[in-house]
Specification:
Elements lengths: L3 H6 L8 H6 L8 E14 L5 H8 L9 E10 L1 E3 L5 E4 L1 E6 L2 E5 L1 E5 L6 E5 L5 E9 L5 E12 L2 E4 L7 E9 L4 E10 L3 E16 H4 L15
Amino acid sequence: MTSIFRTAMGAGFDRLHPQLQRRFSVGLESGEACTGRGVMDRVWHGGAFVKPFLALGGTRNILVPRAGRAVPFVIENVPYTDSFGRETVTFVRTFDLPGGPRRFDAQMVLGPKGDRVLDYLGTHQHLATDLYFHAEADGSLLIRSGTHRFREGVVDARVPELIGATAQVRESYDDAAGRFRIRVRVVNRYFGPLFGYEGSFTATYSDVRARGVRPGLRPVREEARA
């Protein structure tokens, strides 16, 4: 079965651990949605200077403005067709932090050339970045972000390196524990580490045709520009 992730990775997809292959086969063709439930051992922030940016991003479900340890979380990967006819997969992460839950929303579509995934961030898809997927020798998945772009109305601008950041995600499957493991780091070229989390989770799968997309999972606004 072809998912947007298999298409973007090509032959590299087959080098992933079988459990990762199933998780990233979520899509309209497979008809499956995936829900991960687990614990983040740590949700961390960089220096105090990042707090205003995290707080601002938190108003649109971009990044997470609070830190914590042993944080329960849920990730919802649900495929649907967006208002522009593109297959989309949600990556909505909900962290049960002190003071109330916080969400980090993203929706992924296949890039125009089919060699990467386009990641729209937040409730209004104001930020977009290219994601590059690579299978590591041990069957784990490495995801690196590319250029960030800001879109609002007629504005379509590249985010300057001074205030932008690069993200690196490593996801693997621990056969002994029967759990997925994930580590995320967001780093600014000039100021260093900004935000990240690491932990583990288990996954369950459901029939998206019967389940549908629950209210509140899709973004408030969808962006057509790739």
